Amino acid sequence: MLGQSIKGVLAASAFAAAAWATPLSAAFAAAPSANSAQPAEIAEIDLSVDYVTIDTGSTKTRGIGYNGASPGPTLRFKEGQEAVIRVTNNLDVSTSIHWHGLILPYQMDGVPTISFDGIEPGETFTYRFPITQNGTYWFHSHSGFQEPDGAYGSIIIEPTKREPFRFDREYVVVLKDKHPHSGDRIMRNLKMTPDYYNRKQRTIGDLFQDFGDKGVGETLAERGAWGAMRMMPTDIEDVQGYIGLINGKAPEQNWTGLFTPGERVRLRFINASAMAYFDVRIPGLEMTVVQADGNNVQPVTVDEFRIAVAETYDVIVQPREDKAYPLLAESVGRSAYAFGTLAPRAGMVAETPEIRSEKPLLTMADMGMAHEGMDHGAMDQGAAMQMGPVDKQAMQKDAVDSGAMSGMDHSGMDHSGTDHSGMSGMSGMDHGAMAGMDHSAMGGAGGDPFYAPGSGLTPKAANGGKVLSYADLRAQAPRYPDREPTREIVLRLTGNMERYIWSINGVKYADADPIRLKYGERVRFTFVNETMMAHPMHLHGLWSILDVGAGQWDPIKHVVNVNPGTTVSFETEVDEAGQWAFHCHLAYHSAAGMFRKVIVEGGPSADAGETAPGAIEAVAVQQEEL
């Protein structure tokens, strides 16, 4: 498996399946039953971090990979094992590996400056941690832009107990947005010209089309509003011009997964993209979603699903006919697509279905401007939105970051030197200007509750069928006892597209205090998205219990997507001590400041003694907007 070695008491043949395809029989071969009374089985893996050439057929670029390839290998573990992973850095710069979605000691989480110092050139670092879960996950570098440049791979963890669903064969399907520019170059271009990669800007032809569809008056008023905000309805994707990949293969290279007609095939989808959301469909086949972010969910049958950056979804399909089926993943902005084939025989290529040509456009709802009670009277054509003095004072309060929680007193702090450039009225669009909006009543009005009513981003299936929504997800079994949160933390997602600054509560990471949590408490995080872009928010080390209104059946995730103009909440049981990263998983948003450190105080390793999860008595929810 691309140089991967697995030793210990497990027979090597148990893990000899190909990196991207594993028949069910091989998945369980020679795997002994777990016995907690015995020492954990050791799964040893050697990984090298290397410069590689990434060949998409139309482009060849220098990138970074693992064991000489990008994507890296699929690492297979069994729940209950202990992982020992030796990582050797063959680069000429420091590197790291983050085990995305895995619950482990924070020192093994792989985030430089938060959990460890990184792996220097020529060094070998050994990660060692227990495997306490099962499901589909992935791993990637958390250093610079190495992940966008190719440093990623997948993880499969087999459960100790029988799965609650049947399948005969499985494939990992890793989606990726491969750009001919390096991550460093992309970031420089975005900071220089934020719409550098926006290749779908509206034209004079679109203007006259709008005149005919909406009338001259309405069209000019709408164009004036967008101009006042220094925004465009096409600002859906920060980066375009990439090639969509499936398991490292471009559409013309045709990644293929084989099946025997009538088999139930498990597809483990992972979105390892830097920036691209994908709408996934297999024309001719329904997909039954059985797992989200590595956790089993009650089965949902859909025709299509949207997968945010860093999310994973496992689906079951059952192709009955002796023919090739296309696997299509279109970017949400319809600027690129990834393509592969499910086929009964090698060498077959499915016919590419019609790629949707209609480009989605942002609406005023996505800008948070379609809500009752909002006064648009101050908006003038050609003038940028600015905050008034009252709004600024309110945002000053918001800017005191989440370190104020857990009893920390910031009342005497001097913020006069803090850079609030992401929150004050600037020459460009200032998303902090929406800080006073009330999002509490948003969602659910005649559509998907996780999109603003009237949103231009709400997904629609190509065949008019069902699209997966977060609202459809229910946990297969509760992971935690159902209890009230001890407090609520409100995090406003903010930014400035003109200067390409992304932030939380108007404060970028370099200027922010950590979010402090107490071991054993249950915290409710509420995101208010005041920007025009979706943000996949990833909390390391702790599970995110997404609030879909299902109580104890709320799904458990490690990435929660927050769409423009919406408010989304999740709760977390604070049951892992240490320091953790909390950030938007869009690579360039994270690097531009939408990032926080989370410090969990107390716990079994604390000098003050042990505190068991759940030991803090539930009290009335204390809402903290920081």
Brief characterization of the structure:
The protein has helices spanning 24-27, 183-192, 204-214, 216-228, 389-399, 587-591; strands spanning 21-23, 42-55, 60-66, 74-78, 82-89, 98-100, 124-130, 135-140, 152-158, 169-178, 243-246, 255-258, 265-271, 278-281, 287-292, 295-302, 305-307, 312-317, 325-331, 337-343, 487-496, 501-504, 515-518, 522-529, 535-539, 544-546, 556-557, 559-562, 567-573, 578-584, 595-601, 623-625. It has 626 residues and is mainly beta. The longest helix has 13 residues, at 216-228.
Which stretches of 5+ consecutive residues score pLDDT under 50? 1-36, 370-446, 606-626
Query: How much is the radius of gyration in Å?
Result: 24 Å
User: How much helix is in the residues?
Assistant: under 10%
Tell me the major beta sheet. 7 strands, mixed
| Number of helices in the DSSP assignment | 6
Distance between the termini: 47 Å
> How many β-strands, per DSSP?
32
| Mean pLDDT rating | 80
Shape: globular
The chain-level structural class is mainly beta
Beta content = 25-35%
